[in-house]
Amino acid sequence: VLLEPFVHQVGGHMSMMKYDEHTVCKPLVSQELSFYESLPLAMRQFTPQYKGIVSVHLRKDSLGNLTLIASPSLQAESRGRLDNTIGDSSVTIWHKCKWAASTSTGSEHTLVQWSHTQLSKTFKDRTDLQYRTDSLLEDANGNQPERNSYNPWGLHCHRQHLNRMSSKHNENKLHQFLLLENVVSKYNYPCILDLKMGTRQHGDDASEEKKARHIKKCEQSTSASLGVRICGMQVYQADTGHFLCKDKYYGRKLSPEGFRQTLRQFLCNGNHLRTDLLEPIILRLKALLSVIRKQSSYRFYSSSLLIIYDGQEHKENTAPLDNHLRFQKTHCTPSHGTNHSRVDVRMIDFAHTTFKGSQCNPTAYDGPDHGYIFGLENLIKILQNISE
Q1: Edge-to-edge, what's the strand order for the sheet holding 66-71?
Q2: Do 307 and 192 touch, CB atoms closer than 8 A?
Q3: If you ran DSSP here, which 8-state letter would residue 48 be given?
Q4: What's a single GO MF annotation on this record (predicted)?
Q5: Quick check: 100 pLDDT over 70?
Q6: Quick check: 166 and 92 in contact, CB under 8 A?
Q7: Which domain holds residue 292?
Q8: What gap in Å lies between CA 93 and CA 207, rounded to an integer?
Q9: Is 35 a domain residue?
Q10: Do 252 and 239 share a structural domain?
Q11: Residue among 188, 182, 279, 307 nearest 238 (CA)
Q12: Would you state the pLDDT for residue 316?
């Protein structure tokens, strides 16, 4: 299987790849595997479904372009080989990727072709990134063309991993990747908020230097005051047809008030505030909160929480704006649609999660993760305030 870049990655530093329409994959970390293999039943509705392990290797073509190839047939035997490669969680990605776009001609389109210099220039000092989607004009048969949208953060992660990978490993080395459910596959325009949860981010295995770095990041951001900080975001703007993107550097600089405003912005589609989403998001967060309160010994250090909804609204919420409203749209006036849009809340990234009985971590904790609970409670409160 030729791995494609996962274009809806909004946060994190590991490069996520798309395995198929409903599956993403990421470099295997033994602690994360251990978490998924012993996942408490109550938590399963709040995590991506774990689908197994796959072996991946680098392939270089005659032009020096790198691609990643996954070998599903090796999946069964790959568990035996885990011990040899478990320490190495590096990954490579596409320097340039081509695949057949589903057009009538079936011709190949180069969808991503960014050189290192272009990437470096693009990511220098930019926290407010926008990316375009293809025009949404319908063709003669009333079909919309295929939409290709790219969040720049994913490309940023790809570039970093590529540099690391090509300098470290030869092409024949097999790498183990986790296969996980693609939790945004059912959305046409996935609006995603990536929140780093908890008051502490460093794992038990962190060096003193790393520990100090993480503690400082928490103290200087809303992690300390609210128990949650923004790590990445993409919101579809119905008025421009663009996604508005924010990255982790933007999130780190926010004050508690700035955090509240960004949360509001996440629910704003350029025309109005999606008030129809507030109640279902709050209910789902409350359900997660009651599950986390019951998980004794778990510490979800450095894990993220995704809040997801579809930027494409149901018809009854998309009445044309009159001039008065259009004038006000920069302030995002509330929409009063009654339809509860489908929302999702999922925990991701468990490379530093520890729990009693985990082989990877001898430190055992008592009771639930109070730092995580503190963050969830504050998140719910802020959303309730927006709702009121």
Answers
A1: 4-5, 17-20, 23-27, 175-181, 50-60, 66-71
A2: yes
A3: P
A4: inositol hexakisphosphate kinase activity
A5: no
A6: yes
A7: 186-314+339-387
A8: 28
A9: yes
A10: yes
A11: 188
A12: 53
249 and 369 share one domain: yes
130 assigned to some structural domain: no
Number of domains in the chain: 2
CA dist 277 → 153, 242, 283, 339, 387 (Å): 25, 20, 10, 9, 10
pLDDT at 315: 63
- Rounded-to-5 percentages of helix, strand, coil across the chain: 35, 25, 40
Edge-to-edge order in the sheet of strand 128-132: 128-132, 242-246, 228-237, 190-197, 304-310, 343-348
State how far Cα 188 lies from the chain centre.
16
In residues, how long is the chain? 388
Residue 85 lies in a domain: no
Which residue, of 183, 218, 252, is where some domain finishes? 183
Same domain, 17 and 164: yes
> How far is Cα 286 from Cα 279, in angstroms, rounded to an integer?
11
Amino acid 129: pLDDT: 41
User: Do residues 356 and 246 both lie within one domain?
Assistant: yes
User: What's the distance, Cα to Cα, between the start and end of the chain in Å?
Assistant: 49
Report d(CA 213, CA 282) in Å as an integer. 32
Instruction: Give the pLDDT confidence score for residue 273 in this predicted structure.
Output: 95
| Same domain for 259 and 174 | no
5/16 Cα distance (integer angstroms)? 7
Q: Domain for residue 205, yes or no?
A: yes
More confident residue, 104 or 345: 345
Contacts 24+ apart (CB under 8 A), 324-333: 325/271, 325/272, 329/239, 329/270, 329/271, 329/272, 332/264, 332/265, 332/268, 332/270, 332/271, 332/272, 332/273, 333/272, 333/273
Q: Are residues 266 and 296 in the same domain?
A: yes
